[in-house]
Amino acid sequence: MPRSYSTRFVPIQSYGMLLYSDMSDRIVAVSANIFDLIDVPTEKILGKNVNAVARAYLRDQYNPIKSALSGIKLQKITNKILEVSFDNATYVLHITQSARHIQWECEKKISADKVEFHMERISQVLESNFPSLWDNLCKTVLSITGFDRAYVCRIHDNGVTEVLAENPTNKTETLLHSRFSKAFMSAEHRKYYTTSRYRYAPDLWAPLTKLIIWKNEDIDQANSNLYPMPQLHRDFATRVGAKGIIAFPLMSAGKLWGLLFAQCFVPKRINLAQRQLCALVSLYASKKNGSYSNQYLQRFQTTINQSLINLRTELSHSANIGCTLVKHKNALLSIPQADGMAICIDDELNVFGTSPTKNQITQILQYLHIKTEKSLYIESDFRQQFADLIEGDLNSAGLIALRLGRNREVCILWFRGEEINSMFQTAPLPSEKTNTSSQLQFPVLNNSFWVKTMVDSSGLWNDNDLYFIKCIRNILRDTMLAKAKQQEHINQKLIELNNELEMLTFTLSHDLKNPLSVVKLSAQILARNLNGEQAKWTNMLSEGVADIENMLNSVFSIGKQKIYLYEKNYVPLAPMVERIIKQMHLLQEDKAAEVTLGALLPLWGDKNHLHQIFQNIIGNAFKYSKNRHPPKIHILSYLKDSQTVYEIRDNGIGIPKSELEQIFHVFRRSTNVGNIDGTGVGLALVRRILDRMDATIAISSEENVYTIVQLSFKNVPPSETH
User: Fold this and answer.
1) Strand partners, 95
2) Which of helix, strand or coil describes residue 458?
3) Percent of the chain with pLDDT over 90
4) What is the DSSP letter of 509?
5) Phi/psi zone of residue 207: left (φ > 0), alpha (ψ -120 to 50 degrees), beta?
6) What secondary structure letter does DSSP report for 368?
């Protein structure tokens, strides 16, 4: 035989038999109870051709079986249900494809009432309005199955399960309105219930059988209805007195919305047709519930539509998102039925209603920044889970947080107060208290259950609450995107205006030089032929022309700094500073200035730009301290963090504190300069150059006492090249 005889096995329920064949029709898995029926050793089945086995043991029914198998493999049909006879008994054979295998599920046929008997109950479901839908579904399933109790569970978005409807046929502990913790319906449990139209365990106490599998075969037996129910759910059913159980998934929008559980208090098997009928009715009820939910949502949409339109309109015309949201605080607070709300825009926090303190809200936002990147965070038991992380007592238990923007700079938090309720809790029992004597016997009561009074949690946020908040999210996203595009458009316009300004600057600096030169030359010629009072006016004319030329040259220098590209290098500053000091002594005709130098560290930058910076700053120190006796100037540098800092100090006229920022504007000079020459361009030029170098300038001063100019340069070469 080409395959190894080594096998492994997994437990399955014993009310039916299970077999898997591969696409080559080789039998690769078989349940052990088949061998009890046909009394042959394992090697007579495993590894054999499924057609040969069917022909040998089901001779009279072989042709329809072969036809069904061919149709499924050719994907003409998805599954086939056949009745077959063996050893004077009738069996129901269900053939279907499961991943890369063909699944053969077989169980003994059970007689049942005619389907027509249940049509009255089924019609009640078909004609149900929303309030009675789930109650009628429970009654219908009990009527079809003959079980003792049925209840519908809703699985909320936060993982809590709640019983919405129940129909017991005898006196028992009611489960209506009971809630179950998140552990009752894990992601694994949800997947289990959504992979089949129903899940069925007719006898929770019956021993299991085993599915024998070739070790090199990957069988997905979880799709079979013989696959055991989750241990936790079997244990809970046993705890409430059930001996058998069947469950039907209730789907909505492709997701598991809830479950219908039916229980019997004695072991009971029901016919496949009854199970399929219940599954069909449950499917219809799910669709009807979805339709009712959509209608209810549409009515809710109509109610809130005008509020949303008003908010969107005002946001689109407002320059301040935060102010607009605050203006609409009443709707934002009342529609999702929140007790409190906080609006935080760029660290500006506004709080309304019953909410945590501003300090606590700040801590909550910091926590969310670390915990999740999702824009929408929903938790009805936030205080229960995270109160220890927040300073002080939280007066709110439930939270929804909406955070938008690249840095989450737009945040809205909704708060709800505590709502005390009861909830089923579960925990695994110690191993010595569980029944695990055999892998093929259900380990009854592996979990303990108790009802706990829940505090530190709020009422659940419902579908309407979430719909409204998601609408707010969409409106804010659209608004922020539109404003970003608008800002981009404004920036482009500014670029165009700057380009026009540069052209105007060029015109002023170059095209006007020729007529100014004519005026200057004419004044000089006139000065040669005039004397006395007339010569005085020609001199004033020449000086005015010179001033205009200086201003135009300065404006042109500023314009050039915007587009000039340069490369940086390490520049030794000591020689440059000493040369500038010598020049200043000559230009200012002041030999008395006392200049002292400290350490002059090298800088990373463009040599010409550095010369312009220090020439302007040192020149100002000389110019504005020349009337002191004696003028004193001190220049030093030092390292601070990742920067090299230069300080130029003088004992000159100083700058009024109210004018310290204005002096960086073009043509702005301090009001105490008197008759000292200057154009008000030098510091504007220095700041422009420093901005390009990613450096900074700071000035501190006291009028008639001192001025300190502090220049800070990065002392590590940046990665980019300018």
Assistant:
1) 80, 104
2) coil
3) 42
4) I
5) beta
6) H
